[in-house]
Inverse folding.
């Protein structure tokens, strides 16, 4: 909603609590001074001169009658009270918003700590499961051939890329594949 016009300011008088002390003579004097300045004959180059002068006349008409002036004063009082309530409400709203943000931050920090703890717990459980799985595989391979630990990286050591293999790569790969195939068959027979 746009703010309504303040007729006291248009006539050139102070608006607020002081307007209750103004007399009709004060309003007449202020109107005459402002009319001399805003009259369209005094401002021939101003395209808004006529509109400004018309607004001045209508404001004067409202202020010179006691009944319309009393209604306008009541309107100004209500606006001031509303503005005061709005400022108080804004201060309360800012406090509530900052309190809410603080609580959200503390809850978020607690939730982050809880999720990290859950994540660490799940990772530990996963590591334990992997360790159990590896131990089980190692045990099953040792039942097939107890003299060789197939989980040990020294059983089939990888040669570095710079060294020359003692066996051609395709033969070494074929040997590895055949050993693993034999192991798979032996494990399947045990099941």
């Amino acid at each position: 909603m746009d703010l309504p016009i303040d007729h006291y300011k248009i006539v050139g008088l102070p608006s607020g609590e002081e307007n209750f002390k103004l007399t009709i003579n004060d309003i007449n004097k202020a109107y005459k001074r402002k009319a001399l300045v805003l009259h369209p004959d005094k401002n021939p180059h101003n395209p808004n001169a006529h509109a400004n002068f018309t607004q001045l006349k209508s404001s004067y008409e409202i202020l010179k009658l006691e009944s319309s002036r009393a209604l306008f004063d009541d309107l100004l009082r209500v606006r001031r009270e509303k503005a005061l309530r709005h400022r108080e409400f804004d201060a309360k709203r800012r406090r509530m918003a900052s309190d809410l943000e603080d609580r959200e931050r503390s809850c978020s920090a607690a939730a982050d700590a809880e999720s990290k703890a859950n994540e660490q717990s799940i990772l530990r459980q996963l590591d334990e499961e992997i360790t159990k799985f590896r131990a089980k595989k190692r045990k099953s391979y040792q039942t097939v051939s107890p003299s060789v630990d197939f989980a040990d990286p020294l059983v089939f050591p990888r040669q570095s890329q710079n060294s020359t293999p003692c066996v051609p790569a395709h033969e070494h790969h074929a040997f590895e594949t055949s050993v693993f195939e034999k192991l798979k068959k032996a494990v399947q027979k045990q099941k």
The chain has a mean pLDDT of 77. Residues 72 and 78 are 10 Å apart (CA to CA). The helical segments are 7-11, 24-38, 49-64, 66-144, 169-190. The chain is about 70% helix and 0% strand.
